[in-house]
Design brief:
Elements: H1 6-19, H2 23-33, E1 51-54, E2 60-63, E3 66-67, H3 73-87, E4 93-94, H4 95-102, H5 108-126, E5 132-135, E6 138-141, E7 146-148, H6 149-166, H7 171-181, H8 194-215, H9 220-231, H10 239-242
Parallel strand pairs: 1-7
Antiparallel strand pairs: 1-2, 2-3, 4-6, 5-6
Helix pairs in contact: 1-2, 3-5, 4-5, 6-7, 6-8, 7-8, 7-9, 8-9
């Protein structure tokens, strides 16, 4: 209708879903109108993302809440492209940067053809062309369709940093939510590549730094840090020893 404001309706739907108010209707409205949750608060856990990508502790790809059947040699390159895109932030990633990561020894024109073909195959695998946007040579996920735990981790890390600056009772729940997202190293179990290791170590270092800071103001952070080390023993190592290529 004339006064439809998607950002306001998206924020209202996020509140309704999180509070258990007309959840089915709100979720359907989000799907029909491709709404974003809006506001500064994180989206509720049951927000109806078309695709959810989990990278901590291993890779998982869900479509409409169900694991996407994506195994075998034919899917290897398309999924590698998806992982590279996440490792590089998921938005505005130059085609050349992706090609250098996946096809480092292939000349420019051939790499471009490989990128174009692989992107087509990834879109076909997902079954939703609009989930991936290529604009002026830069590839992005469309956030109306895709959620990744890597994005959620960075957003929650920002929230914890703000809580630490402000002090008070907000530190504990912010730290607990951050750990709930971190289920192990970024893309654990994958063949180690430079593009992956850089992001893995950066996230690991940020988590270690934030938990150390939280431990100075909240005793419970020490227990969280111990649980993190169980998920990722490398967190117990000095940062210099964890750096890619160290040793």
């Amino acid at each position: 209708f004339q006064w439809w404001l998607p950002q306001d309706v998206g924020r209202l739907c996020a509140h309704a879903i999180g509070a258990g108010i007309e959840v089915d209707y709100a979720r359907d409205l989000v799907r029909w109108r491709r709404l974003m949750p809006g506001g500064e608060a994180p989206a509720p856990e049951n927000w109806p993302w078309a695709f959810r990508v989990f990278t901590f502790g291993g890779f998982r790809l869900l479509r409409q809440g169900e694991p996407l059947a994506a195994s075998g040699k034919a899917q290897r390159r398309p999924l590698e492209l998806l992982k590279v895109l996440i490792a590089y932030g998921g938005e505005g990633v130059a085609e050349e940067r992706i090609a250098d990561a996946i096809w480092p020894r292939i000349p420019g024109d051939s790499a471009h053809r490989s990128f174009t073909s692989t992107l087509h195959r990834l879109r076909k695998l997902l079954g939703e062309d609009k989930a991936l946007v290529l604009h002026e040579g830069k590839l992005s996920f469309d956030r109306r369709y895709v959620w990744t735990d890597a994005w959620a981790f960075e957003a929650q890390a920002d929230t914890l940093e703000a809580a630490l600056r402000a002090g008070g009772d907000a530190v504990a729940p912010a730290a607990e939510r951050l750990l709930a997202l971190y289920r192990g190293p970024f893309l654990a179990g994958e063949a180690d590549e430079a593009w992956m290791l850089e992001r893995r170590e950066r996230m690991r270092a940020r988590l270690a730094r934030l938990l150390a800071a939280a431990g100075r103001v909240w005793d419970g952070a020490h227990e969280l840090a111990a649980r993190c080390r169980e998920l990722d023993p490398a967190l117990a190592e000095p940062a210099s020893a964890r750096a890619p290529g160290a040793g």
